[in-house]
């Protein structure tokens, strides 16, 4: 892999120095996902996308409470030694 390829990869994954563990030879990638979660305004039960009645008490739901929820996942992947050297030299 050339220096140019490594630069493109780091831009694509938005690598920071803290994401690379040079001792263990691993790279941590954090995935952030946002989604909207709807809740019943009366009891707080979670509603599906097409629910018109509350699953908790069966009341008709005219206006649900919409809440943005972030999900965070982290993957750790091994990195070849020569790739670690190229990342270190960036």
Written account of the structure:
Helices cover 21% and strands 36% of the residues. Strands 1, 2, 3 and 4 form a four-stranded antiparallel beta sheet that branches. It is built from two helices and four strands. With 90 residues, it is α+β, with helices and mostly antiparallel strands. It is rod-shaped. It has one domain (3-88).
Give a quick precis of the structure.
The chain has two helices and four strands; from the N terminus they run αββββα. The protein is α+β, with helices and mostly antiparallel strands and about 90 residues long. The longest helix is centred in the N-terminal third of the chain and has 11 residues, at about 5-15.
- Overall, the morphology is rod-shaped
- The helix-strand sequence is HEEEEH
Count of folded domains: 1
> Which consecutive residue ranges, at least 5 long each, have pLDDT under 50?
none
Query: Given the helix and strand composition, which structural class is it?
Result: alpha+beta
Evaluate the radius of gyration. Answer: 22 Å
Beta-strand content estimate? 35-45%
What's the total number of strands? 4
Keywords:
single chain, 90 residues, 4 strands, alpha+beta, 2 helices
What's the helix and strand layout?
Elements lengths: L2 H11 L6 E2 L4 E14 L6 E2 L17 E14 L2 H8 L2
Antiparallel strand pairs: 1-2, 2-3, 2-4
């Amino acid at each position: 892999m050339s220096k140019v390829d490594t630069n493109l990869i780091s831009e694509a994954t938005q690598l920071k120095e803290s994401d690379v563990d040079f001792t263990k030879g691993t790279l941590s990638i954090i995935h952030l996902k946002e989604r909207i979660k709807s809740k019943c305004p009366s009891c707080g039960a979670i509603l599906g996308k097409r629910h018109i009645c509350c699953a908790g008490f069966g009341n008709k739901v005219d206006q649900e409470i919409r809440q943005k929820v972030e999900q965070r996942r982290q993957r750790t992947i091994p990195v070849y030694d020569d790739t670690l050297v190229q990342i270190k030299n960036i």
